Structure to design on (155 residues):
């Protein structure tokens, strides 16, 4: 069985490498960029029905709130799993890439049961090397063994 550990990743590492947090922040940054463009070009448009700056500003605020909420929840969850989790070795059965996602199928044993799970991660400098590996360390949430994090992604 795996060993207990209490090492926690840094907040910036979670925000950069966690698929949920990075996607939420990416959506906010995209919306912010669109709003800046709309605000920059709207004074030059004769027909302001094409672009409505207040709508874009409102949507940007909503995206900001959603991104902050998702990011805070993910940082708390990842830290909780790393604080209370169990490390186990897993076999990488299959790996592939699709657009910006790395897809892995891993097999691991926990509490005398074998689990097979699909994991999707954002492709980053840390995750690219996983495509060439045959094994990976997982951090398992002891409250729900189907919830796993890849150790190397966060630390």
């Amino acid at each position: 069985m795996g060993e207990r550990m209490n090492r926690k990743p840094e907040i910036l590492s979670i925000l950069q490498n966690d698929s949920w947090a990075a996607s939420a922040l990416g959506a906010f940054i995209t919306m912010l960029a669109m709003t800046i463009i709309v605000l920059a070009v709207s004074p030059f448009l004769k027909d302001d029905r094409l672009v409505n700056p207040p709508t874009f500003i409102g949507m940007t605020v909503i995206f900001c709130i959603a991104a902050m909420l998702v990011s805070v929840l993910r940082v708390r969850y990842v830290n909780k799993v790393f604080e209370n989790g169990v490390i186990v070795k897993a076999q990488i059965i299959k790996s592939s890439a699709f657009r910006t996602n790395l897809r892995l199928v891993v097999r691991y044993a926990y509490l005398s049961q074998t689990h097979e799970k699909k994991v999707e991660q954002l492709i980053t400098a840390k995750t690219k090397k996983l495509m060439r590996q045959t094994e990976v360390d997982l951090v398992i949430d002891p409250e729900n063994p189907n919830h796993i994090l890849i150790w190397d992604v966060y630390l």
